[in-house]
């Protein structure tokens, strides 16, 4: 009797427990539906993009850059791949970050933006990191950026010259100007480049200062003469970069931007004193269109050949890229000459302002990536967040 009673009680309790847990399930399901409903409006791609929360003065050296890139990789595993394209003279990694929606398998256009080929021009590297963060944080909420990462691969190399960045030096650790070491119009005195090498095998000679000569013979030798290396691609950094770009060529490589400071300009080829071929009419039209768009929509300017700032350079990365792959290749000089690290007195100030000035340029190129690859008019306007572009500094 007791046994039966206890069986009945157990059965009764089981029923109650089941009923409670079942009703709990329903409740949980209802809650989930409610949660989904509250979540849905945020998933819609109608949000304006927001800006990375950066602070003035917070720059990223080699180790800071490495940490930030790894942080992106951890936070956005489906959007980010971080890898090294090779090593510097001192064995530092030349990091590259690829940003794309890895879940979409369509054929994608790719593009490459790099910074700090001149190691003391920090802001070029910062601009790559800033763009990376801007794209990543707005994916999935902003339609334009989501579309960009669904259909293209954005490759960024923040520190082309990691040894130079760490030493705050223009040159790599062999004393060579990497942006004179490419195989185009190589080693021309009129392109501010000659092989200088090492004196007695010991003292590195990175440049000869001809600024005094310039006063007497202004047209003879422009600016300073930089060490271009003994032959094109003599340096591990430029070799790694050349080989990486050749791999991108098979991947619908669409445009390239080589970032510097501080001449406040955006330009296409040629910087070479002796261009190897003439730019076709259609190519020139596209270069002019893009450069003029930047001049009209941002604070950056076109290069005027008559201006004091203008001078020819040989062995440059962007000229070589255009020659080699025949894709739109640009030189982007961030900041203004007042902030130039090499010639100017001021350096590294107003970081957030300068980062915001780069976004319209990069977003313009990214929304037009397919036009650029096909040499069609890049006439799509990029939607931009509030305050961008910012008011120019006084
Ligand atoms: Zn530079």
Helix and strand topology:
Layout: H1 2-43, H2 62-75, E1 80-87, E2 93-99, E3 109-114, H3 122-138, H4 143-151, E4 152-157, H5 162-167, E5 193-194, E6 198-199, E7 203-204, E8 207-209, H6 211-216, E9 224-227, H7 236-249, E10 253-261, E11 265-267, H8 281-297, H9 317-325, E12 329-334, H10 351-367, H11 369-373
Zinc ion (ZN) binds at residues 118, 121, 260.
Question: Could you please describe the fold and organization of this structure?
Answer:
- With 394 residues, the chain is of the alpha/beta class.
- The chain is built from 11 helices and 12 strands.
- The protein folds into 2 domains: 1-43; 62-170 and 229-373, Aminopeptidase, CATH 3.40.630.10.
- The protein has helices at 2-43, 62-75, 122-138, 143-151, 162-167, 211-216, 236-249, 281-297, 317-325, 351-367, 369-373, and strands at 80-87, 93-99, 109-114, 152-157, 193-194, 198-199, 203-204, 207-209, 224-227, 253-261, 265-267, 329-334.
- The chain has a 7-stranded mixed sheet, sandwiched between helices.
- The chain is globular, with a radius of gyration of 27 Å.
- The termini are far apart.
- Zinc ion binds next to loops.
Q: Give the CATH class of the largest domain.
A: Alpha Beta
| Mean pLDDT rating | 89
Report strand %.
5-15%
Find the structural class using helix and strand composition. alpha/beta
Q: Low-confidence runs (pLDDT<50, min 5 residues)?
A: 18-23, 35-41
Secondary structure tally, helices? 11
Please tell me what the overall shape is.
globular
Looking at this structure, what is the CATH superfamily of the largest domain? Zn peptidases
Give the distance, in angstroms, between the N- and C-terminal Cα atoms: 96 Å
> What CATH architecture label of the largest domain applies?
3-Layer(aba) Sandwich
């Amino acid at each position: 009797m007791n046994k039966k009673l206890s069986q009945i009680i157990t059965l009764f309790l089981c029923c109650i427990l089941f009923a409670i847990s079942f009703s709990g399930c329903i409740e949980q399901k209802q809650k989930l539906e409610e949660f989904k409903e509250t979540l849905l409006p945020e998933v819609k791609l109608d949000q304006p993009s927001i800006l990375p929360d950066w602070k003035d003065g917070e720059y990223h050296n080699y180790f800071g850059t490495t940490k930030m890139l790894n942080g992106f990789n951890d936070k956005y595993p489906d959007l980010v791949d971080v890898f090294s394209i090779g090593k510097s003279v001192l064995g530092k990694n030349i990091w590259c970050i690829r940003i794309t929606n890895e879940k979409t398998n369509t054929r994608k256009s790719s593009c490459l933006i790099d910074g700090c080929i001149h190691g003391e021009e920090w802001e070029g590297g910062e601009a790559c990191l800033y763009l990376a963060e801007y794209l990543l944080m707005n994916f999935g909420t902003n339609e334009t950026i989501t579309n960009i990462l669904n259909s293209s691969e954005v490759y960024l190399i923040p520190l082309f010259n990691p040894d130079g960045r760490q030493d705050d030096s223009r040159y790599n650790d062999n004393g060579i100007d990497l942006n004179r070491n490419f195989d185009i119009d190589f080693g021309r005195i009129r392109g501010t480049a000659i092989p200088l090498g090492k004196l007695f095998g010991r003292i590195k000679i990175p440049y000869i200062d001809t600024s005094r000569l310039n006063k007497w013979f202004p047209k003879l030798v422009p600016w300073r003469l930089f060490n271009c290396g003994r032959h094109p691609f003599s340096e591990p950094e430029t070799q790694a970069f050349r080989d990486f770009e050749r791999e991108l060529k098979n991947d619908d490589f669409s445009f390239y931007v080589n970032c510097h400071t501080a001449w406040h300009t955006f330009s296409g080829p040629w910087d070479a004193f002796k261009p190897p071929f003439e730019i076709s009419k259609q190519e020139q039209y596209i270069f002019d269109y893009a450069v003029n768009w930047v001049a009209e929509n941002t604070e950056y300017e076109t290069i005027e050949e008559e201006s004091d700032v203008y001078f020819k350079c040989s062995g440059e990365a962007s000229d070589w890229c255009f020659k080699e792959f025949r894709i739109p290749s640009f030189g982007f000089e961030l900041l203004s000459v007042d902030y130039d690290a090499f010639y100017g007195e001021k350096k590294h100030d107003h970081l957030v302002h300068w980062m915001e000035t780069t976004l319209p340029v990069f977003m313009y190129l990214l929304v037009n990536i397919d036009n650029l690859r096909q040499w069609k008019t890049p006439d799509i306007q990029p939607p931009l967040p509030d305050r961008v572009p910012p008011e120019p500094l006084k």
